[in-house]
Design goal:
mainly alpha, three-stranded mixed sheet, two-stranded antiparallel ribbon
């Protein structure tokens, strides 16, 4: 049974988080399109004419699927847990992706990647459609493994959900980043790739969803024992800490392990040759 104080808090939290993200998205979208020099936004030539409807149709389509996931989570977990996994996914994704993109763009690390042709709404230098996609995959994979293995095997479920998400990403990213689609551009050089995608991308997918799943699951315990207010502060405090730790882990593994040992290799599917 939810306490009345917790019920009142989750309503204020909803409007507070919604307002924060609307302002952040509005400012980011304005800077991206109207003040591109502020964050040194790369200038793109745009999609080929035969693909022009893709971003127009895919962006609202992704939001519809995101809404359906939110509705399902609301019916099964309640408003508070829905807000944590939704806005937590946006923060997890937004912080980590912006760290990786902007640190490479401003010379703190070698160039990494950037997004292009992914819609009109942005959170920093990450399209909102990408954040929504992270939420859809994270929540869906977490829910699927809980149905398969039960809710009590927390670490195992986090591992299985992360592996499931990476399995989907193995075929999705090569298609989306192909020059014909041009959803984003990789700038990394001499690194180990799988299907032309740097291995660090798949490690990031795994780590991000694994940490989100564990943190979201733990927040339910905090909410029951400490109340929604304190549990919420702890949940959102841990997000930037884990993001920074994951970004450092990805960079150090790429810089000192993956590149020295496997740099330049690309595990790809060889095309069929007909003589």
């Amino acid at each position: 049974m939810i306490k009345e104080s917790d019920r009142q808090f989750e309503k204020r939290l909803f409007w507070g988080l919604l307002g924060f993200f609307l302002v952040a998205i509005g400012v980011s979208s304005y800077l991206h399109f109207f003040v591109p020099e502020f964050l040194r936004v790369p200038q793109e030539t745009g999609l080929p004419e035969y693909l022009w409807p893709v971003p127009v149709l895919s962006e609202p389509g992704g939001y519809i699927f995101g809404f359906l996931c939110c509705y399902h989570c609301f019916r099964t977990r309640g408003l508070w847990q829905t807000m944590l996994v939704l806005f937590g996914s946006f923060l997890f994704t937004g912080i980590l992706e912006n760290i990786l993109i902007l640190s490479g763009r401003f010379g703190l690390v070698p160039p990494t990647y950037y997004f292009s042709n992914m819609g009109i709404l942005w959170l920093g230098e990450v399209p909102v459609a990408v954040c929504t996609g992270w939420f859809i995959f994270a929540y869906s994979c977490i829910y699927i493994v809980e149905v398969l293995f039960g809710p009590k095997r927390r670490v195992w479920n986090a591992l299985a959900g992360s592996a499931l998400a990476v399995n989907i990403d193995l075929w999705m990213d090569p298609l989306a980043s192909h020059p014909a689609m041009h959803s984003w551009t990789w700038l990394t050089e001499n690194t180990f790739c799988i299907f032309t995608i740097p291995l660090s991308n798949f490690l990031g997918w795994f780590g991000l969803i694994f940490l989100l799943a564990l943190l979201w699951d733990k927040s339910a315990d905090w909410g029951r024992s400490q109340g929604y207010r304190r549990a919420t502060w702890k949940f959102f405090l841990w997000i930037p800490i884990l993001d920074i730790m994951l970004a450092l882990l990805l960079y150090t593994s790429w810089r000192f392990l993956i590149n020295p040992l496997l740099g330049g290799l690309n595990l790809d599917i060889m095309p069929l040759r007909i003589n």
